[in-house]
Design a protein that fits this description.
Blueprint: H1 2-17, H2 24-58, H3 65-115, H4 118-123, H5 126-168, H6 170-217, H7 219-224, H8 228-253, H9 256-281, H10 293-334, E1 355-362, E2 373-380, E3 385-390, H11 396-401, E4 411-416, E5 419-420, H12 426-432, E6 433-436, E7 445-446, H13 447-451, H14 460-469, H15 473-478, E8 486-487, H16 496-508, E9 514-518, H17 526-539, E10 544-548, E11 560-565, E12 568-573, H18 575-581, H19 583-605
Helix pairs in contact: 1-10, 2-3, 2-5, 2-10, 3-5, 5-6, 5-10, 6-8, 6-9, 6-10, 9-10, 14-16, 18-19
Length: 606
């Protein structure tokens, strides 16, 4: 178990250090300056003790006293200046290295997330990824800076202080050394006890971020249902759990300083007692003849330095305790490999828009007991329009996500243009298979900028053409700034139907061979829906169109319509064939037709 944990920590450190890259030089220079600073600070008490001893021996009224003061004072001044300069330069280089390391770490995390497949994204919640990119990286950045400075300085200064205290008086110096094992045992015990708290804390941080994210994203729903108090209480609960665990951990960590202060001060008191006897009557503990006030002062100074080192070490310990869990969570993301990657020398051309499913079974997790899709055999010719109907949870979206390899099949194969999708270069495949997902997403920026996600080199004429196809041109021109209208993040300043039409236009701008609309006209009226379908038929007849819909009217003119139920295709045919042969399709059609008739009659009566 211990060997496995050691290997995990070693692997974690090596993974994180890969992000140092161009900041290796300041990272290596910092410890050098810290070593110089520690060495200088340890020499200062030694020379100060010599000054006191020399003055004591020669007497205050001696004519040589001022010469001694100038001599040792000059040495102390030089050492102090060297210490100050080294400390300042170490701080500068450490800040450069740690900030650069954090920048690279965030870049690497973000880049890794961009490479994730939908399966990888499902493994980490969005709130957890946000915490890892912000709080966790900040914790690791602070720890890295402390490691470059304090972690190098503290052991060196502690070692130098021990050595110099032995040089001053070997017998009395053993008192300091005897205290160290007790303090080491204390720190190890506290660390073992505190770590579980920090593991829980970061999981609760994720819950806290998730609460904020949900509330901000759904603020309109919260206000519409007057649920502000409920959301406030939910946030209070999440924040309270973080606070409680932090409080418990900090109460334990707070024991560090007083216990360490007690041990070191106790050691100083013991040394002072023995030194007093040595000075007064030449006690055995005086290792050197003539043990005096100067040596006692030097020993106490080194004791204070040791205390200072231990205090700083406790600070490092607290930070490292927190950042160890942060580092583990960051490493989880960095070590997560996408389960969908482009093959070497992948196919770089999609010949046509034909799609074929061959004995396809699919489940989201390997350990899942049930397939989300099973026994899928389907052949779609290039240029055909295919409609997909089915109840909620019938795996309609899952089916179409296999075509651009957003997920990979568990069993069987999917072919586009007669070639297995796993053999294509991913970028090529996804450029030719354009998907308007069920959840429409627009980004902050102008309408033109959003549409050019489809083709960054598209001209204004291309943009207007696809907007006309998607029936978006009219409402865009009604905006004061037209196509330069600014869209808020998530498209919150446009209606649901407008957002859907902009997303359809964006997909059309790619000029794909396969266009997939996942319930992408649900928020538009039936007239606009019909105009969009008519434009598709007239303007892009060679593009294969796969339309998931809830309304029969959206797909009744399709070349073929699939009925999905429980992850299986239970019926396939055109509108007339399904009315005759499929009870499910007939029930959907009749229910929607009667609904329309009722609405018309009510309107007439009114």
């Amino acid at each position: 178990m211990l060997v496995r944990r050691k290997k995990e920590k070693t692997g974690m450190v090596s993974t994180l250090l890969k992000s140092v890259r161009e900041y290796k030089k300041p990272s290596m220079i910092t410890p050098i300056f810290m070593a110089i600073e520690a060495f200088c600070e340890c020499l200062i008490p030694f020379f100060a003790g010599l000054l006191i001893t020399s003055i004591q021996e020669k007497g205050i009224s001696s004519t040589d006293t001022m010469n001694l003061i100038y001599k040792y004072g000059g040495i102390l001044l030089v050492l102090a200046l060297f210490s100050l300069m080294s400390g300042g330069l170490a701080g500068k280089f450490a800040a450069t290295a740690s900030c650069g390391f954090a920048k690279n770490l965030r870049h690497d995390l973000f880049y890794r997330v961009q490479k994730f497949s939908f399966g990888n994204v499902d493994k980490f919640s969005s709130s957890s990824l946000v915490t890892r990119l912000t709080t966790d990286v900040t914790n690791v950045q602070q720890s890295y800076q402390m490691c470059l400075r304090i972690v190098i300085r503290v052991p060196l200064q502690f070692l130098f202080a021990i050595i110099m205290s032995f040089v001053t008086n070997p017998k009395l110096a053993w008192i300091f050394l005897a205290v160290v094992p007790f303090l080491a045992l204390l720190l190890i015990s506290i660390m073992r006890y505190v770590m579980p708290f920090f593991r829980r804390i970061f999981k609760k941080y994720d819950a806290l971020n998730n609460s904020v994210q949900e509330n901000v994203g759904g603020i309109r729903v919260v206000k519409a249902f007057v649920r502000e108090e409920y959301e406030t209480e939910k946030f209070k609960k999440a924040a309270g759990e973080v606070r409680n665990d932090f409080t418990k951990a900090e109460k334990i960590l707070a024991l560090n300083n007083p216990i360490m202060t007690f041990f070191i001060n106790f050691a100083c008191v013991v040394i002072s007692v023995f030194a007093a006897y040595a000075i007064v009557d030449g006690n055995f503990w005086a290792a050197h003849k003539g043990f005096g006030v100067g040596q006692l002062s030097t020993l106490i100074s080194y004791g204070i330095q040791m205390l200072s080192c231990l205090m700083m070490f406790s600070m490092i310990f607290v930070m490292l305790s927190m950042s160890l869990e942060s580092a583990r969570r960051i490493t989880e993301v960095l070590n997560e490999s996408s389960d969908i990657v482009s093959p070497e020398n992948g196919v770089t051309e999609v010949k046509d828009g034909s799609v074929r499913f061959e004995n396809v079974n699919f489940k989201y997790a390997k350990t899942a007991n049930k397939f989300a899709l099973f026994d899928i055999d389907l052949d779609i010719k290039s240029g055909e329009t295919v409609g997909i109907l089915g109840s909620t949870g019938s795996s309609k979206t899952t089916l179409i996500q296999l075509i651009p390899r957003l997920y990979d099949t568990t069993e069987g194969a999917v072919y586009v243009g007669g070639i297995n999708v796993k053999d294509y270069d991913l970028d090529v495949l996804r450029r030719e298979v354009s998907v308007v997902l069920q959840k429409n997403v627009l980004f902050s920026g102008t309408i033109k900028e959003n549409l050019r996600w489809g083709d960054e080199n598209a001209t204004d004429e291309d943009i207007v053409r696809v907007c006309k196809l998607a029936q978006a041109d009219d409402f865009i021109r009604n905006f004061p700034d037209g196509y330069d209208t600014y869209i808020e993040a998530g498209g919150t300043n446009v209606s649901g139907g407008q957002k859907q039409r902009l997303c359809i236009a964006r997909a059309l701008l790619r000029k794909p061979k396969v266009l997939i609309l996942d319930d992408s006209t649900s928020a538009v009226d039936t007239k606009t829906d019909a105009l969009i379908r008519h434009a598709f038929k007239e303007e892009i007849p060679d593009t294969t169109k796969i339309i998931i819909a809830q309304r029969v009217s959206s797909v009744e003119h399709a070349d073929k319509i699939l009925i999905l139920d429980g992850g299986k295709i239970v019926a396939c045919g055109n509108h007339a064939e399904l009315l005759e042969n499929s009870e499910i399709y007939r029930e959907i059609y009749e229910a929607q037709t009667k609904s329309k008739s009722s609405e018309t009659e009510e309107g007439g009566d009114a």
